[in-house]
Predict the structure.
Amino acid sequence: KAGVTQTPRYLIKTRGQQVTLSCSPISGHRSVSWYQQTPGQGLQFLFEYFSETQRNKGNFPGRFSGRQFSNSRSEMNVSTLELGDSALYLCASSLDGQGNQPQHFGDGTRLSIL
Amino acid sequence: QKEVEQNSGPLSVPEGAIASLNCTYSDQGSQSFFWYRQYSGKSPELIMFIYSNGDKEDGRFTAQLNKASQYVSLLIRDSQPSDSATYLCAVIGGFQKLVFGTGTRLLVSP
């Protein structure tokens, strides 16, 4: 069974640009969550999608947005990039996002802002 | 107070010893607890999860829950240098959100 697939693996952007990251969950998983990981802040929850609907949202500005498609694949978009957005962005999937279902992570997208 | 707290370490143990990692959580209603291992430059990998109904053992790993004191522990028996990594504790909090601690770095010396 294939794991969670994130593309691209690495991205370099400049301030003010926007970026779209993609995540394909494990087959059969319908919940997709996104996290930002930085050395200082650890893993911070961005949002969670289930059945094409955003079900949960973390404390990030509106520049961070996402969506989920009918095949459960998800995209995350960051607009007007700032230097502080440099981070590892991780996607995790689970069967239904309920508390008794573990989340499995993809390899992440490392975003660098110049 | 942070929702999930872990000592950042590093926790240094010799090869073959038992490594004990702890995390405390603030939400008394939490029912699900997860341990992830993250090697440097890699993504978190799920190694154990337990629910509020009991402890769990899987090979060299044992996860224990102390609900009264609101902490979860991970014991690694016969620690190996390959166990050297950062261990992240995660707890299901309000609205079914998974909340992570900042992780404990474990160093196992040969």
